[in-house]
Amino acid sequence: MRVATWNVNSVRARIAHVEAFVEQNQPDILCLQETKVTDNEFPLKHFAGMGYEHYAIAGQKSYNGVAIFSKIPFARTEPIQWCGRDDKRHLAVTLENGVEVHNFYVPAGGDIADVTLNDKFAHKLDFMTEMADWFTERQADDNKMILVGDLNVAPFETDVWNHKQLLKVVSHTPIEVEHMARMYESHGWVDAMRHFVPEPEPLFSWWSYRARDWRASNRGRRLDHVWVTPALKPHLKAMEIMLTPRDWEKPSDHAPVVVDFDFTGMH
């Protein structure tokens, strides 16, 4: 089973990119973030044409929005109002093999890393705290969960192009890294990306639009993540950050991440 996660930064603006990516990589499950469209205006026909019979979408106009498209039947789970807001940042489904897929778009947090000066940063930390608490309460050895999405934190020193320069930049501040560590410990998660590319090798999934040549400057951050519960660790097969879509005309600033699983023999 191949799972892809991608902050597409407007699904309607980049539907041709999605189609090209799907044609080249054939994910069984495609999780999108920042779809930026209401459910009634979502370009569903395109996804049907790509072979995705099963889907769950949660969108709003111009901001946020998450979607899960699958070639495997699933049951959609009850939505959660994180921080008491219906701001379309999470979807969860349970596949017919019992695997739960959680697709998150964690708040970016604005520009100032101070909860007293910046409500957006406070919201981000609260959101991450709620996530950690929620998964802690649901801990069980046999839980089969995959958590993907734009979590908007680059936790390790080699998840950013320059650790010292980014220590005060939202996405890599010590308090955010601390909150992510709590999230990570909440279920004994396995970082699927670092499972295949261990530290200290640099690993990035996002590059600012400001760079004239993003590949040459390579000032990236790893904001996109794929985590699995310990029960699924033996089933991890391969991982790749797909850089090609970042080169396309008017691209998303995020590259898709693909993880392959082998579920043969799973009980």
| Whole-number count of domains | 1
User: Major sheet: size, sense and barrel closure?
Assistant: 6 strands, mixed
Q: Which stretches are poorly predicted, pLDDT < 50 over at least 5 residues?
A: none
Strand runs, count: 14
SSE order, one letter for each helix or strand: EHEHEEEEEHEHHEHEHEEEE
Strand order of the largest sheet: 3-4-2-1-14-13
Total of DSSP H or I helical runs spanning 4+ residues: 7
Q: Gap between N and C termini, in Å?
A: 16 Å
The residue-averaged pLDDT reads 97
Percentage of residues assigned to helices: 10-25%
Describe the protein in words.
The strands form 3 sheets. The protein has a 6-stranded mixed β-sheet with strand order 3-4-2-1-14-13. Helix 3 (119-137) links the parallel strand 7 and strand 8 (145-150). The protein is of the alpha+beta class and 267 residues long. Helix 3 runs parallel beside helix 5 (174-185). The two termini are 16 Å apart. The model has no long low-confidence stretch (mean pLDDT 97). The chain contains 7 helices and 14 strands.
Topology (elements, then pairings):
Blueprint: E1 2-7, H1 15-25, E2 29-33, H2 44-49, E3 54-58, E4 66-70, E5 74-76, E6 90-95, E7 100-105, H3 119-137, E8 145-150, H4 163-166, H5 174-185, E9 190-191, H6 192-196, E10 206-207, H7 214-217, E11 220-221, E12 224-228, E13 236-241, E14 257-261
Helix pairs in contact: 3-5
